[in-house]
Amino acid sequence: MTSIVGWAKRGLCSRYSGMNLSRACPRGNAQRGHARTLCVPNWRRLGRALPTLLALCSYAITCIVVALGWLFVPPPSTASADEIRPAYLELREVAPGEFDVLWQTPIMGDTRLDLEPEFSGEATAVSPAATRTAGGNAIRTWILRAPALRGQTLRIRGLEKTVTDVLTRIAFLDGSVAINVLQPATPSVVVPERQSKLALARNYIVFGIQHIIFGADHLLFVLGLLLIVADRWMLVKTVTSFTLAHSITLAVATLGYAHAPVEPLNAAIALSILFLGPEIARIWRGETSLTIRAPWVVAFVFGLLHGFGFAGALTGAGLPRGDLAVALLTFNIGVEIGQIAFVLLVVALERSFRQLEIDWPAWLARAPGYLIGSAGAFWTIQRTAILLGVVQ
What we know:
Helices cover 53% and strands 16% of the residues. The chain is of the alpha+beta class. Strands 1, 2, 3, 5, 6, 7, 9 and 10 form an 8-stranded mixed β-sheet that branches. Strands 4-8-11 form a 3-stranded antiparallel β-sheet, with no helix packed on it.
């Protein structure tokens, strides 16, 4: 595979620019007047690539819209990173029909997210809620009486107005546990009679996929690496190195052996994206560096940082230690699925563009590199200002 950064230079320039039939058609045929028939191979090539291109572009446009929204929509407060940390709702049955409730929500600035759990059936609080703060979260506890909780619909009021997720865990006296992930698009769930281990794993895998797909900073870093790699083997080494690194720190942080403060971590992740901008520009100028010669080294070093970012989705939820092993494994699988899907999308787009032989303007071919450098600079300045308390 040719270098993805060379889209505009290797494979994307059309051989048929200017409609020169003596070049577009096989030798000698243009002189015989067979221009209509002889240009059919070009249309066949277009026909083969166009369906794939249209499908891929529709998904790419969605990703770009999400990324631009993250980049240019200003945060409502200094805690923009806090809002994407998940809330956590735990109900533990301590007597028949009686539950201890723990409701943990991220704090934005000095205010917690305005989220409230609601049930469709009989569910009454029988004790006042006790509130405390810990680790940038507001934690409320109370006792709930719900004689028939199974089969009721649990809804998180206000979730559709945020960009966060809610992990819910309901443990019953008979030993069964129901764990679900609620998102702004699906803020409710029916409490199941019994949840299989397969369904539990599927929920965490979906949570991991969504975490990476909507993590614009993580995806831009991966895109930057793809613009640097020069061949297929280097691509495999670089992606594997990034995967290994973030899996290490994801496990270390989730299991409680290390911790990275949110504000410095977010600034460091932004700086890793900014770091790739000049490296991509060096490729345009035909220069080289350690990053260009061995991008897998940079992928591993910065992958350690990104792993702490991934871990925030699990450590911020405060899951019981007994659930961490399954959550860690399946969540990481979901992250890898999302990452591989993104890599395959970029590679497939590059192949489709190369097959279509489009003659790109130089500025458009370099647009992904400019996007990465600009986003990295913007986020670095923004998150450093938040870290230093300049932005309130």
